[in-house]
Design brief:
Blueprint (H helix, E strand, L loop, with lengths): L1 E7 L2 E7 L4 H20 L6 H27 L9 H7 L1 H15 L6
Antiparallel strand pairs: 1-2
């Protein structure tokens, strides 16, 4: 495993990376850093751990939307009228993600 020194929200992290995965890891670091800095710069949240959780939820939600859009785009015309929950029910990974998001958001109903 190769190790990369990266910066997220001004703090250094030493991350392990499989050979050939450096560019994907650096892209992921950039997405996380951007998401966390956006929340921090919004001024409503100061605690680094809370910023990290909110950024993770936002990134997971964005991923969910892209997966759902991809599923809907590749589904036969007869299935495109189904609800998001029906699409998630056909995909156990997506259903799990939706359930985790609902649980996390259910506590106060808001990301920020």
């Amino acid at each position: 495993m190769k190790q990369l020194d990266v910066q997220i929200m001004g703090q250094s992290y030493l991350l392990s990376c499989p050979p050939g995965g450096e560019s994907r890891l650096l892209e992921a670091v950039e997405r996380v850093d951007t998401a966390m800095c956006k929340i921090r710069d919004g001024g409503k949240v100061r605690a680094r751990d809370r910023i990290a959780v909110l950024a993770a939820l936002n990134l997971a939600f964005d991923l969910e939307e892209r997966v759902l859009a991809g599923v809907a785009a590749s589904a036969p015309a007869a299935n495109t009228a189904s609800s998001d929950s029906a699409v998630g029910a056909d995909n156990p990974v997506l259903a799990n993600l939706l359930q985790r998001l609902d649980t996390a958001l259910g506590e106060d109903g808001q990301l920020i």
